[in-house]
Design goal:
2 domains; globular; single chain; 165 residues; Rna Polymerase Sigma Factor, Chain: A; Arc Repressor Mutant, subunit A; mainly alpha
Length: 165
């Protein structure tokens, strides 16, 4: 059983990372309710497995892997559901007058259409600004796999973004 001091330091680590964890979950999932649930479940899972954290200095990578895996599970469950949120059904009924907001919407729609593995690497690379090697470590896959997923994700997104111009 972990000592009270160990539990206290783990609690301090989680408090320090809760906001960034939620923001990352929201970026991957695109839904605040799902992001809340994924973040809570990831922290609960981290707590249950806290003894496997050997180096508190590596908490970011260790917890990041737990959070990303929880988000991946939720994305895969969502893909199997028959009912999809209206935001994923297509273009807005009225075009936005702001080019920046319109471009942002097009990017968001293109990202939401990616499968879980491709969406996660795009978010980790371009939203969380992690390097390919950091993403590989977080996902426990080779760097080449990350590069390949990024390549295919961007290739898939490109026509959708060009159509939005």
């Amino acid at each position: 059983m972990a000592t009270e001091t160990g539990d206290d330091s783990f609690a301090a680590l989680t408090r320090r990372h809760i906001d960034s964890a939620y923001r990352l979950a929201w970026a991957i999932l695109g839904d605040s309710g799902d992001a809340d649930d994924a973040t809570q479940e990831a922290f609960a899972s981290a707590w249950r497995n806290r003894r496997s954290l050997r180096d508190p200095d590596r908490f970011d990578a260790w917890f990041g892997r737990i959070l990303v895996n929880e988000c991946r599970l939720r994305l895969r469950r969502r893909a199997r559901e028959r009912i999809r949120p209206l935001t994923e059904l297509g273009e807005p009924a009225v075009a936005d007058a702001s080019g920046h907001v319109s471009a942002s919407d097009a990017i968001s729609r293109a990202v939401t259409r990616l499968d879980a593995d491709h969406r996660i690497v795009v978010i980790l690379r371009y939203w969380a600004d992690l390097s390919v090697d950091e993403i590989a470590a977080r996902l426990d896959v080779p760097s080449g796999t990350v590069k390949s997923r990024l390549h295919y994700a961007l290739r898939s997104m490109r026509p959708r973004l060009e159509d939005a111009r």
